[in-house]
Amino acid sequence: THLHDFIRGLPKAELHLHIEGSLEPEMMFALAQKNGVRLPYPSVDAIRAAYHFTDLQSFLDLYYAGAAVLQTEQDFYDLTSAYIRRAIADHVRHAEIFFDPQTHTERGIPVATVFSGIARALRDARQQGFSGSMILCFLRHLSEDDAMATLEAALPLRDDYADVWVGVGLDSSEAGNPPEKFRHVFAIAAAMGLHLVAHAGEEGPAAYIRSALDVLQVERIDHGVRAEDDTALMEHLAKQRTPLTVCPLSNLKLCVVPDLRHHNLARMLRAGLCITINSDDPSYFGGYMNDNFIAAAEALQLSCAELGQIARNSFEAAFVSPEQKRIWY
Ligand code: HPA
Ligand code: ZN
C-alpha cells in the first residue's frame, strides 16, 4: 500500500536496538550446536513458540538465556552483520547499537571479544553507506560496583574503538533499580567524553525519567512512555527536545500497553516531544524498524507528515556531528 511504501522509503536512524535482541531463533539454534551450548528447546520452532511475555522480566529471562550461545568474535560479527542487513533493507542509514557486556563477561567471554566482533561488522558496513556506533549498557539489576568494573575493563579499548564506541546506557530490570543507583559510574563515563542514555519510564515511574535526567545527566531517554504521568516533566521534555526512543512493538509484547491503539507516542509527538520509533529487540518482539513504524502508523493513524517528523527526529537525536546531520536531513 501507499503507507507501507512511504514508510519503507523514509531514511531513518535506529537509536534503541539491543544487538543481543536481534538474535533470530535460527542463528541461536545454529550457534548452540556449533558452540556446544545446551538450549532448553528442541527446535527453532520451539524457540519461537516460547516467545510469550507478560512483563519485562519474563522477556529478560529468555533474552539472557539465548545470549549464552554467543561465544566467539565471529559470533558477535555474524550477529551484528545480520542486523545490519535487515536494517539496510528497512532504509535505516544509521544505528546506535546497545550491547550488554556483563551478560557475556559473566560467562567468561572477554569484553574485547564483544567489542571486536560488533565493531568489525559496523566498520565493514561503511562500504555500503551504513553508519553505526556502539553504546555499552550496564545491567541495572547488578551493582554499581559491577558496572564500574565493566567500564574499567573497557577503558583500555577506548582508543582502538574511538570511531565506534560513543556512549553508555542502562538497561535490564527497571523496577526497584532507579537511575541514581549508577550516579558514580555515569559521572566517570561523562568525564571520559562518552554520551549518556538510560532506559527509564518503561515499567518504572516518571520519577525515574527525572532522575535519569537530573542525576545521571542523560541526553536521551530510552522508552520514557511513563512521562505522561508528570505534566511538568512533559513540558520540560518538549522544551528541551529531549529525545525519547520509543519501541511500539516492544511495549505491546511486554504488556506495557494493552493495545497499540492505546499507545501514547502520537499524543507525545503532538505535544512537541522529540519522539523516535525503534525496534528494541526485534527478534523477540516480532518486528524490525519498518514493522514498528507500520504498526504504530496504522494503530494511531499517523499522517505522512508525522511519520516524516519521527524519521527526522531520529537524525536530530543521533550522536553524530552537525555536518553529518545536514547531509542526512
Ligand atoms: N528494557 C530493559 N532492558 C532491556 C530491554 C528493554 O526493553 N531490552 C533488552 N534489555
Ligand atoms: Zn531496550
Give a short summary of the structure.
The chain has helices at 2-9, 25-35, 44-49, 56-67, 73-89, 101-105, 111-125, 144-154, 183-191, 206-214, 231-240, 248-253, 265-270, 282-285, 289-300, 304-316, 322-328; strands spanning 12-18, 92-99, 131-139, 165-171, 195-200, 220-223, 243-246, 274-277.
Report on the structure:
Catalyzes the hydrolytic deamination of adenine to hypoxanthine. Plays an important role in the purine salvage pathway and in nitrogen catabolism. It catalyses: adenine + H2O + H(+) = hypoxanthine + NH4(+). Keywords: Hydrolase, Metal-binding, Nucleotide metabolism, Zinc. InterPro entries: A_deaminase_dom (IPR001365), ADE (IPR028892), Ado/ade_deaminase (IPR006330), Metal_Hydrolase (IPR032466). Zn(2+) binds at residues 16, 18, 199, 280. With 329 residues, this protein is of the alpha/beta class. The protein has a single domain, classed as Alpha-Beta Barrel (TIM Barrel), CATH 3.20.20.140. 49% of the residues lie in helices and 15% in strands. It has 17 helices and 8 strands. The chain has helices at residues 2-9, 25-35, 44-49, 56-67, 73-89, 101-105, 111-125, 144-154, 183-191, 206-214, 231-240, 248-253, 265-270, 282-285, 289-300, 304-316, 322-328, and strands spanning 12-18, 92-99, 131-139, 165-171, 195-200, 220-223, 243-246, 274-277. Strands 1-2-3-4-5-6-7-8 form an 8-stranded parallel β-sheet. α1 crosses α15 (289-300), α5 (73-89) packs parallel to α7 and α8 runs parallel beside α9 (183-191). The longest helix is centred in the first third of the chain and has 17 residues, at 73-89. The model has no long low-confidence stretch (mean pLDDT 98). It binds hypoxanthine (HPA) and zinc ion. The site of hypoxanthine (HPA) has 11 residues, from α4.
